[in-house]
């Protein structure tokens, strides 16, 4: 079984840090508990996206039960990008009384009791979409449940509403087309079927999903990425793949030889789009598998999962040619939420690019904010952009004009400090599909054979078994006889 989440101690420490921050400083990576839990619990779940996919358990209190009270739960959230305060309120309404956020009308008995509620700060991406939520735990409160329902309000502004409309309040989604619901299982299976059955056809055959299907894939996957940590903690056995770059036929070949999910656990190291001709099919299949098997299929962010890069190197043009710019923006929102590193059995650290002079402790990766764009400098930039350099000692300038190169000494120093055995990364074309560095303490894996039709390179997939023994399956360029070869184990 693949471990998805950080340890309870780390979770607890992160939660304590979030609670000390100002509004907007935290982020949701797991279902959140609001309040002290000492009163009856009101729970609600969204069928639309709230920046994250979560079930929130509110601190609820039955007010003035003798006169017909109100049970209420409130969450305050600040949109970190648009700097607006969103107040989310779940209210169970009783005959003769209703309570909304901090406002409570007089009960029939003429008494007014203070509305007590717990608050917690969350960091959402831009745009919150609300849908009808007419289910809850009203039966806990005694009277006829037919007179109660649970609703969710999003109020754009700093003040609480003084009245409450019984009809569901609506707010515009950040995505064109309105409300985005979680993708239906049957729809997901059909998408996977259509995307994989083309392996029997000629290479390069397109699969044209609908715009609505793509939006559902992106929004659902985005929520899953945010629920899981930025530094994934995984267990072997697992197969690790490097750059794909829109070479969809080669991606299908990788699955044919490694086993289609869920027959094997997979970790991809980023760079799914750009350069190749079928970036859309590539990223859609990977997102579909992530949604279908969230605990067995993992995707890291590469430097091309960035708007400023894929705007130039092909993905934007492919989206615009086959759909429209809106679709590209939906992918951008999804890419901004991808995790950036993975730790396999506490011994193999994986990322797209490489090490960073700003990386002193692995907790610094865990605490990187999401959603986020890739900055020009700093830890996140280096994890996605840096390269090993054979002739470098310490840190050097990178010919890419971004980030650094690092020498074998820095790899050894890093592994010793963090009690690791291996760094596994992608980001560079290597002739055999894989290449060792620093006395086999670092390995580069590249999974796009005959890259861009210009290189005569092989592609590779690294298999890590239960004992952390690594072997490489080599995918020769398509025009040659396709076969996998096993390397010497390390």
TrEMBL record:
It catalyses: O-phospho-L-seryl-[protein] + H2O = L-seryl-[protein] + phosphate; O-phospho-L-threonyl-[protein] + H2O = L-threonyl-[protein] + phosphate. GO terms for molecular function: metal ion binding; protein serine/threonine phosphatase activity. GO terms for cellular component: cytoplasm; nucleus. It comes from the Eukaryota. Residues 1-46 are annotated as: Disordered. The keyword Transferase does not apply. The keyword Transferase does not apply. It is an enzyme of class 3 (hydrolase). Its cofactor is Mn(2+). Its EC number is 3.1.3.16. Keywords: Hydrolase, Manganese, Metal-binding, Protein phosphatase. Residues 300-305 form the Serine/threonine specific protein phosphatases domain. SMART domains: PP2Ac (SM00156). InterPro entries: Calcineurin-like_PHP, Metallo-depent_PP-like, PP1_catalytic_subunit, Ser/Thr-sp_prot-phosphatase, STPPase_N. It holds the Pfam family STPPase_N. Belongs to the PPP phosphatase family. PP-1 subfamily. This is Serine/threonine-protein phosphatase. It comes from Brassica campestris (Field mustard). The lineage of its organism: Eukaryota, Viridiplantae, Streptophyta, Embryophyta, Tracheophyta.
């Amino acid at each position: 079984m693949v471990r998805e989440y950080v340890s309870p101690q780390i979770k607890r420490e992160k939660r304590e840090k979030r609670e000390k921050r100002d509004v907007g400083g935290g982020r949701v990576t797991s279902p959140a508990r609001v309040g002290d839990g000492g009163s009856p619990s009101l729970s609600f779940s969204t069928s639309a996206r709230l920046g994250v996919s979560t079930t929130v358990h509110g601190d609820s209190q039955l007010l003035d039960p003798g006169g017909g009270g109100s049970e209420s739960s409130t969450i305050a959230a600040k949109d970190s990008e648009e700097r607006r305060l969103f107040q989310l309120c779940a209210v169970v309404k009783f005959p003769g009384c209703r309570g909304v956020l901090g406002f409570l009308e007089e009960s029939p008995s003429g008494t007014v009791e203070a509305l007590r509620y717990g608050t917690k700060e969350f960091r959402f991406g831009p745009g919150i979409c609300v849908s009808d939520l007419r289910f809850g735990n009203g039966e806990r409160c005694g009277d006829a449940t037919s007179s109660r329902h649970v609703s969710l309000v999003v109020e754009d502004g700093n003040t609480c509403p003084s009245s409450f409309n019984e009809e569901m309040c609506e707010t515009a989604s950040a995505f064109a087309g309105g409300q985005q619901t979680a993708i239906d299982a049957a729809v997901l299976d059909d998408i996977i079927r259509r995307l994989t059955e083309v392996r029997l056809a000629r290479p390069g055959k397109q699969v044209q999903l609908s715009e609505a299907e793509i939006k559902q894939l992106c929004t659902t996957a985005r929520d899953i990425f945010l629920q899981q940590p930025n530094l994934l903690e995984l267990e072997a056995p697992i197969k690790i793949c490097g750059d794909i770059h829109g070479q969809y036929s080669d991606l299908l070949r990788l699955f044919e030889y490694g086993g289609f999910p869920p027959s094997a656990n997979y970790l991809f190291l980023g760079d799914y789009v750009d350069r190749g001709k079928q970036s859309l099919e590539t990223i859609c299949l990977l997102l579909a598998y992530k949604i279908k098997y969230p605990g067995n299929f993992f995707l890291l962010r590469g430097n091309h999962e960035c708007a400023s890069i894929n705007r130039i190197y092909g993905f934007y043009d492919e989206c615009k040619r086959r759909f429209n710019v809106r679709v590209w923006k939906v992918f951008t929102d999804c890419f901004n939420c991808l995790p950036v590193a993975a730790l396999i059995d506490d011994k193999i650290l994986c990322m797209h690019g490489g090490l960073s002079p700003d990386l002193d402790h692995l907790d610094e990766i865990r605490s990187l904010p999401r959603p986020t764009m890739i900055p020009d400098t700093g830890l996140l930039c280096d994890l996605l952009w840096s390269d090993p350099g054979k002739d470098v000692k310490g840190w050097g300038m990178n010919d890419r004009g971004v980030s650094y190169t690092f020498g074998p000494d820095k790899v050894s120093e890093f592994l010793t400090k963090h009690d690791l055995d291996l760094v596994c990364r992608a980001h560079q074309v290597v002739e055999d599909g894989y290449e060792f560095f620093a006395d086999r303490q670092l390995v580069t894996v590249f999974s796009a054979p005959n890259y861009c039709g210009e290189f005569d390179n092989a592609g590779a997939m690294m298999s890590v078994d239960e004992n952390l023994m690594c072997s490489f399956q080599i995918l020769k360029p398509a025009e040659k006889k396709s076969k996998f070869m096993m390397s010497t184990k390390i």
